[in-house]
Amino acid sequence: MQRRPGTQERVDLAYLWPSLTPPDPALRPTLGAPVDPNERLFVTIAAGDATLPLIERVQTIYPRYLVPEPAAGPDGLTLRGFRDGTPYQGEELVFEPQAPEHFLARCSHKGVTNTGTCLLERRFGNADVTLRFPRDWLSDWKSVASGIDRLIVRLHPN
């Protein structure tokens, strides 16, 4: 669907972690050797005209769905869960309390059939960049934040 000339509404990319290099296209996943999602950082770049920037959602939409009290997370992060019965049930905001604009992700809880996924968003002009990574990476979130910053500079040098 994305392989057509001209402006794209959405582009999906994958990078190996932690090298941030594209995967070898010759290595195709098979039934015996599937892609390990813990080795990949997935990136979606989409037109952001119809969505609120993340920081505005955090200030205007999310508060009505959040639990009252934050909890301590790994290595200085703060966790703020969403209440049951809300559209974000089973997720929580994970952020650096001193600089939430630097690291703020919405993460699903680990479950029986999933390992938990985090979505970290950035906006550049009219483009939303959504980065998806395994929740397990939160234990090394400073490296994740640094890697994402390096990748964003490569994608959007200015």
Fold and architecture overview:
It is built from two helices and eight strands; from the N terminus they run ββαββββββα. The chain is α+β, with helices and mostly antiparallel strands. The model has no long low-confidence stretch (mean pLDDT 90).
Helix content: 10-25%
Q: Which structural class is indicated by helix and strand composition? A: alpha+beta
Number of helices: 2
**Shape verdict:** globular
Strand order in the largest sheet: 1-2-8-7-6-5-4-3
SSE map:
Elements: E1 10-16, E2 40-47, H1 54-60, E3 71-72, E4 78-81, E5 91-95, E6 104-108, E7 117-124, E8 127-134, H2 141-155
Antiparallel strand pairs: 1-2, 2-8, 3-4, 4-5, 5-6, 6-7, 7-8
Brief description of this entry?
By secondary structure, the chain is an alpha+beta fold. The protein has one domain (10-155). The protein has helices spanning 54-60, 141-155; strands at 10-16, 40-47, 71-72, 78-81, 91-95, 104-108, 117-124, 127-134.
